[in-house]
Specification:
Radius of gyration: 20 Å
Number of domains: 3
Strand order of the largest sheet: 1-4-3-5-6-10-11-2-12
Number of strands: 14
Order of helices and strands: EHHHEHEEHEHEHEEEHEEHEEHHEHHH
Bound molecules: flavin-adenine dinucleotide, iron/sulfur cluster
Helix content: 25-40%
Shape: globular
Largest sheet: 9 strands, mixed
């Protein structure tokens, strides 16, 4: 069964992605739960993974990791964003009786790109949740209806800002067990904005059934008639978008890889496959449940990211400083669009590059848009990622250890 409850209206908030907490019985819980106020990653990592992320090696980029794979569900599932690992993990939890319900998103009945929070109790219905939608929807407002329905053991599938709030509140919620399946997330925007983006990519946006920013530097579009189109990143009409196209939240978000999930399922280091980060024993338990269904391999890593990240930081610095983004001449865009998949960083190096870019973006955009929030909102892991690119905390931008209480 799929239950789509009605929710209260959200309480007014500043930086907010409407994760659902402000629609709960106690909207003041936002103060404790919100990623955009004063997140404490080391404390929550200690609670959930029994230790904070290491400050060297790949944990510096991706957070606590017990095992990391290039992965594919075989066969891939119809309608999935990649191979359907995310929804299959949850489906298996329902099949095995480990959980009574899964809290996730399904497409809105009238707009397939708009996410709608849903409680799913029948494993076969997980097929409805497959695929990526663009936009925000109050996932965590499902927690109280799930409790009211008597569900004690649940799985939650969410993006990082939703999972941060879930982790901050989970001990007060009274569930016996929560399995957390996370996906990475970047550059989200409102569903309305997304429709205007689609309309810039094609004359027939209503026929687009799939969109993904792939790790080979192309956006893939699929259409209702089964055709596919690949657009190099550098040919995207990004500089034509209005300044507020990406809300400040998603330009200043501090967690790309869903560091507090039990297992993160993405694609960035997958080189065409998916990318799995098993973060703790519960994540491993979920992956073990799919034994024989998943192809696993060590992720590869090629190229050097530093010059790409440096160029990105420089452009973002100019854009965030109010100067027009330097436009690349069209002939050079074509050449670079051809070169990037061949010489640009790939596999883990691509994922490291994207995580560093996002960290730099967070600092530069917060400095411009919400400077008073930097001190509390930017965790050390973000400062550490941005430091090699000349972005270090300025006076008053970081809480010193003796101020932390
Ligand atoms: C806005 C956005 C940006 C993303 N950016 C990246 C990225 O930069 N790098 C990367 O590696 N991965 C990113 N992802 C994750 C990626 O798109 C895939 O979802 C992931 O690789 C899982 O693929 P799958 O085939 O296993 O998922 P599926 O089995 O198809 O399941 C997808 C799951 O995601 C949920 N979901 C879909 N849309 C939303 C939404 N708007 N909000 C919350 N949950 C949603 C669905 O309900 C479903 O449970 C992003 C996801 C979103 C929603
Ligand atoms: S994102 Fe969630 S926790 Fe943060 S202010 Fe909005 S509703 Fe509250
Ligand atoms: S980019 Fe960050 S803030 Fe925006 S929706 Fe994704 S996780 Fe939330």
């Amino acid at each position: 069964m799929i239950t789509i409850p009605d929710f209260k209206t959200p309480a007014p908030r500043g930086l907010c992605t409407d994760c659902g907490v402000s629609r709960m019985d106690d909207p003041s819980a936002c103060g404790k739960a919100c990623q955009f106020i004063k997140p404490d990653y080391p404390e929550l990592e200690n609670k959930i993974h029994s230790r904070p992320a290491k400050s060297d090696g790949d944990e510096r980029f991706f957070g606590v990791t017990q095992a990391m794979y290039r992965a594919a569900l075989t066969p891939p599932r119809e309608g999935a964003q990649w191979t359907g690992l995310t929804t299959r993990l949850a489906e298996q939890l329902l099949e095995s009786g480990k959980v009574d319900a899964v809290l996730t998103m399904v497409p809105d009945a009238t707009d397939r790109w708009r996410p709608r929070p849903a409680i799913i109790t029948d494993p076969a219905d997980m097929a409805e949740a497959r695929g990526m939608r663009m936009g925000y929807a109050p996932l965590l407002a499902l927690l109280e209806p799930a409790q009211d329905a008597g569900h004690k053991r649940i799985a939650v599938i969410g993006i990082p800002c939703q999972i941060y709030a879930l982790r901050a509140l989970e001990h007060d919620l009274g569930f016996d067990r929560i399995y957390v399946i996370g996906t990475p997330c970047s550059d989200n925007t409102t569903t309305a904005n997304f429709h205007s983006f689609l309309a810039r990519l094609t004359d027939a946006p209503e026929t687009v059934t799939y969109l993904e920013f792939r790790a080979d530097y192309h956006v893939e579009l699929r259409f209702r008639d089964g055709t596919q189109r690949l657009i190099p990143f550098l040919k995207l009409p990004l500089s034509d978008l209005p300044d507020d196209f990406f809300p400040v939240t998603c330009r200043t978000c501090v967690d790309y890889t869903n560091r507090l999930a039990d297992i993160t399922v993405g694609y960035m280091a997958g080189e065409g496959d998916q990318w799995l980060l098993v973060r703790n024993a519960r994540g491993q338990e979920m992956l073990d449940g799919l034994a024989g269904e998943v192809t696993l391999a060590a992720p590869g890593s090629r190229g050097k990211r530093q010059s790409s990240v440096k160029g990105f930081v420089e452009n973002t610095r100019l854009a965030a400083g109010g100067l027009p983004l330097r436009r690349m001449p069209d002939w050079l865009r074509g050449v670079m669009g051809w070169l990037m998949p061949r010489i640009g960083p790939r596999g883990l190096e691509f994922a490291r590059a994207r995580v560093e870019m996002k960290a730099a973006e967070t600092i530069l955009h917060l400095r411009r848009e919400e400077p008073a929030k930097i001190k509390n909102m930017v965790p050390d892991h973000v400062w550490n990622l941005a430091a090699p690119y000349g972005l270090e905390p300025q006076e008053g931008e970081q809480i010193k250890p003796d101020q932390s209480t």
